[in-house]
Amino acid sequence: MCAARQTRETRRDMGHIRRAVFPAAGWGTRFLPATKAQPKEMLPLVDKPIIQYAVEEAVDSGIENLVIVTGRGKSSIEDHFDIAFELEAALEARGKPHLRDLVRSVAEAASISYVRQKEALGLGHAVLTARGPVGNEPFAVLLSDDVLVARPPCIRQMMDIFDAYQSSVVAIMEVPMRETDRYGIIRGTPLPGSDRLYEVRGMVEKPAAGDAPSNLAIIGRYILTPSIFEALEATGEGSGGEIQLTDALRRLTATERVLAYKFDGRRYDAGEKLGFLKATVEFALRDQELGPAFRSYLKSLDIDGC
Ligand code: UTP
After folding, report:
1. CB distance 27 to ligand 1 below 6 Å
2. Ligand 1, residues 30, 35, 43, 145: which to mutate, most atoms within 8 A of Cβ?
3. Do the beta carbons of residue 170 and residue 275 sit within 8 Å?
4. Cα-to-centroid distance, 147 and ligand 1 (Å)
5. CA-to-CA distance for 148 and 142, rounded, in angstroms?
6. 3-state secondary structure labels for all residues of the chain
7. Separation of 305 CA from ligand 1 center, angstroms?
C-alpha cells in the first residue's frame, strides 16, 4: 500500500472531528441576579449572545453537527437558534428585509440538536450527557463563556493537531502564577519540534499558587476521543462536589496520550463580570458601525470622575 493511501486510511479509521458539544447547563452564579431567569450563554456581547460566537467558531471550523447541553431555564437558547416566523413576518411587514435575513441566518447557520442535563452536576457530567448524540467518535467541546478571537479559529487549530496526532487535545494559555487557583493547570513536557504543544503528564483543578505544577491553564476548548466517556463514568465528584472534566482527562492520560496546545489568539473570560466587560468594550471598539462613535465616547470620558 502506498504511503499516501495508508495515511488517508489511517485517518479514516480514527475519524475527523464532525461534532461539537456546547455545555450550557450551568447556573451562571457569577452573574446573578442577571442569570436568575436568563441563561448566561444568552448574555449579549454587543449584539450577539455569547453562545453564538462559539457556534460560529465551530461552523467556521467546518464542524457540521452541534449538540448543545441545556437544562432548566435554558429554553431561550433553543429559541435563539430556531426559525422565528412571527418576528420574520413583522420585520418583512416593516420593510426591514436585512434584519429578517439576519434573524433567519442564525437559524440556518448550523444543524443543532439538544440534550438535557437534568441536574447541574458539573462540566464533566454535562459532557457525559452528550454521549448519545456524539457516539463513538472524537468530538470537540466548546465552552461559550470563553470567547476566543483567533484566525484560524481556535477549534480549527486544534482539529488540525488532532488530524496530525490522533489524540485528545486541550487548549491552554499562560496565566500569572497568582491566578492558578481559577483554572485547571497542567503538568506537561514540551513536544519536540513545537513551541506550542505539550504532552500532558498531570492536571490539577484550581491549585493554590504555591502548589501549581506550572502556569499553563486549561481554557474552554477541547478535542476529545470517545474514551473520555468511560473516564467520565469512572470519575466521582471532585472539586465543588461536581464531576469535573479535568479529573476525567487526568484519568485518560493513564491510557492515552493527551496533548495541550497553547493556542494562537486572544481569550476573553466572558463567564465573569470583568472579563465580560473587557470583551464588550473591545468587541464594540472593533465593530465597524459602532466602533468610531464608541471610541470617541470612551475618549471623552472623565474616567476618574465616573
Ligand atoms: P462554569 O464553571 O462557568 O459554571 O461552567 P457555571 O455554572 O456556568 O457558572 P458559575 O461558575 O456558577 O458562574 C463552565 C461551562 O460548563 C457548563 C456551563 O454552562 C458553562 O458553559 N456547565 C457547568 C454545564 O453545562 N453543566 C454543569 O453542571 C456545569
Report:
1. yes
2. 145
3. no
4. 14
5. 10
6. CCHHHHHHHHHHHHCCCCEEEEECCCCCHHHCCCCCCCCHHHCEECCEEHHHHHHHHHHHCCCCEEEEEECCCCHHHHHHCCCCHHHHHHHHHCCCHHHHHHHHHHHHCCEEEEEECCCCCCHHHHHHHCHHHHCCCCEEEECCCEEEECCCCHHHHHHHHHHHHCCEEEEEEECCHHHHHHCEEEEEEECCCCCCEEEEEEEEECCCHHHCCCCEEEEEEEEECCHHHHHHHCCCCCHHHCCCHHHHHHHHCCCCCEEEEECCCEEEECCCHHHHHHHHHHHHHHCCCCHHHHHHHHHHCCHHHC
7. 36
Q: How far apart are CA 140 and CA 157, in angstroms?
A: 12
Minimum CA distance residue for ligand 1 atom 1: 26
Q: What pLDDT score does 302 carry? A: 86
Interatomic CA distance for residues 178 and 5, integer angstroms: 49
Q: What is the pLDDT of residue 106?
A: 82
Among 21, 27, 205, residue to substitute to test ligand 1 (most atoms within 8 Å of Cβ): 27
Question: Tell me, what's the pLDDT at 5?
Answer: 37
Which residue stretches of the chain have pLDDT < 70? 1-14
Going from the Cα of 96 to the center of ligand 1, the distance in angstroms, rounded, reads: 37
Q: Does residue 145 have its Cβ closer than 6 Å to ligand 1?
A: yes
